[in-house]
Specification:
This protein has 82 residues and is mainly β. The chain contains no helices and four strands.
Length: 82
């Protein structure tokens, strides 16, 4: 039996702290995610700074700030994997 991962990607466009408003679920446009995390050195238990890059399908330029005033940069995001 093989397991299949499912993903959820949400953007808090209006910065109200929740991800339930209309258009905040962008999972349908999800293409890929790259997640990097590390420790400050091999023997340390202190985590280093992590980085996550999420790629969304943007052919319609829905996420392009110059063309969509609601697509402000630096919005909080939530990424789920089950």
């Amino acid at each position: 039996m093989s397991e299949v991962a499912t993903y959820g990607v949400y953007v808090d466009w209006n910065n109200d702290g929740d991800y339930g408003d209309s258009n905040e679920d962008v999972t349908d446009d999800f293409v890929s995610a790259t997640i990097a995390r590390s420790y400050s050195d091999p023997l340390s238990r202190v985590p280093g700074v992590g980085r996550c890059t999420i790629v969304l399908h943007n052919q319609a330029q829905t996420y392009s700030p110059p063309l969509n005033a609601n697509a402000l940069p630096y919005r909080k995001m939530k990424f789920e994997m089950t």
